[in-house]
Amino acid sequence: MSSQEIPDENLPAEQDTAHGAVEVADDPFADPGLPAHKPRIQDIDERAAKRSERAVAFMFTLSMLATIGFIASYVIFPVDKIVYIWPFGHVSALNFSLGLTLGVALFAIGAGAVHWARTLMSDVEVADDRHAIEAEPEVKAKVLADFAAGAEESAFGRRKLIRNTMFGALALVPLSGVVLLRDLGPLPEKKLRNTLWAKGKQLINMNTMEPLRPEDVAVGSLTFAMPEGLTEEAEDFQNQIAKAALMIIRIEPANIKDKREREWAHEGIVAFSKICTHVGCPISLYEQQTHHVLCPCHQSTFDLSDGARVIFGPAGHALPQLRIGVNSEGNLEALGDFEEPVGPAFWERG
Fold it and tell me: How far is residue 224's CA from residue 212's CA, in Å, rounded to a whole number?
């Protein structure tokens, strides 16, 4: 491109053709300055400012209501309730309500803060020179003064409706997280102390799903049983069988050393909890000659001829025994529930 084709404004200010030197302007990148400030309608019309104030307060209030709705949804909707919501289809009522209310609560706070900043806070642009990282005392004083001026210009002290509703929204939103602590687990109440066993409930063979009769249990055999009325299709089957599973063993009455075990048995047929008292593993290894059962997880060993006491391993307690008898139909039945809770380390937990 020749010099004739270069626009005049892009040419150097002065050329010295004799020496080949070019002299340029002193400051080719002059500060263009800031455009003139244009006031907003809220700056000149107090009624418009009041409308913006009410709009911000409405969003903060909406956030508070959404937070309350979040907590209410957590209490009202069961975890397994499914509802149809167009266009999402079938969804969990609890998850949908929690997501919707928490989303509205957080969005309303953000939208209210943005609307406040854009309509009521000062929008005058201020340019300042960069300074050293280590601030001088004068700079620190200036920063504090600017902060105080910004607080004054934000009308935080004057717009009490905005201030109070914002405090309310910010105070309520953290409650959503506090309520979520409920998911750490339900309180055990008395669930660990009780099982499905009760007086008159028949012992059901877990292999045949038929009631057990004394003649079905041979000396030296091991059979697993569960309470009458419990089925594998039940929604809480795993929770219930984890407490109610039984080991049924027949021992010669003369070989039973523990007096209470002999009294709670029926013709040498004894029923003990199948759940190890160490960490809750199911016990299934039976030594016929010694009447010992072994937990496969950590080798805790129990003597079923002596009240199922621990003779080896980390388990801290004997296996609970279920008192059994025979009903009018000749089937084995429970004569009550376990007298002590089943499962691992219950007594250490209180």
Answer: 10
Angle between the 46-76 and 160-180 helix axes, to the nearest 10 degrees? 20
For residue 179, what is the enclosing H or E element?
helix 160-180
As a residue count, the chain comes to 350
Neighbour order of strands in the sheet with 309-312:
285-287, 292-294, 301-303, 309-312
**276: confidence class by pLDDT, cuts 50, 70, 90:** very high
pLDDT at 179: 82
Q: Which residues contact 52 (CB under 8 A, 6 or more apart)?
A: 42, 115, 116, 119, 120
Helix (H) or strand (E) holding 295: none
How many Cβ atoms sit within 10 Å of the Cβ of residue 250?
20
Which residue in the block uniquely carries the two structure tokens 């279920």?
A: 322
pTM as predicted: 0.50
- For the residues 79-101, what does the mean pLDDT come to? 92
267/289 Cα distance (integer angstroms): 19
3-class DSSP state of 127: coil
Q: Which residue has the higher pLDDT, 7 or 269?
A: 269
- pLDDT above 90 (res 109): yes
- Which residue(s) pair with 16 in the sheet? 21
Tokens, residue 170: 């910010």
Q: Judge whether 193 and 335 are in contact, CB under 8 Å.
A: no
Sign of the CA dihedral running 40, 43, 48, 53:
positive
